[in-house]
Specification:
2 domains; mainly alpha
Amino acid sequence: MSALAVAGTPAPAVRNRFVGDAGFAMAAKLFYLVTRLCLPPLVLAHVSLAEYGMWAACFVIIGYVGLADLGLSSVYVRYVARLHARGDTEGIGRTLSTGMVGIGVVACVVLGALAAAVPTLLDLFKVDTASRRRRCSSWAPPRCSWRT
C-alpha cells in the first residue's frame, strides 16, 4: 500500500487531489508574484512619487498588521482537522468561534494602537502637511485634524 493511501481511499485519488491542490497553490503564488511586479509601475503612472511612497509605507504597515494573528491560524487548522477526523462538529464550532473572537480582539488592539500612532507615523515618515490633510481626512478625521 502506498504511503499516500488514506483510510480506504485509493492511492491514485489521493495523489491526484494532492497534485491538484499543490498546482492551485503554486498558481496562486505565481499570480501574487506577477501582481507585485506589475502593480508598482501601474500605480506610479497615476500618482506622484510622494503618494507612491505613502502607498508603499501603508502596505508595509498592513503586512505587519497581518502578522498579528501570531500563527494562531495554523493551530486552528490543525485542531479543526483533528476534530473533523473524530466527527466532533460541536468541537469544531467551539474552536472556530473562540478563534474568531480571539483574533478579533487582537485585531482591535492592533488597529487601535495603529490609529493612536498615526500622528507619530506621519511625523516619522515626514509626510508634508498637504498630503497629511488629504490622507487623514479619508479615514480618521478626528484623529488627524488636530495635527495638521
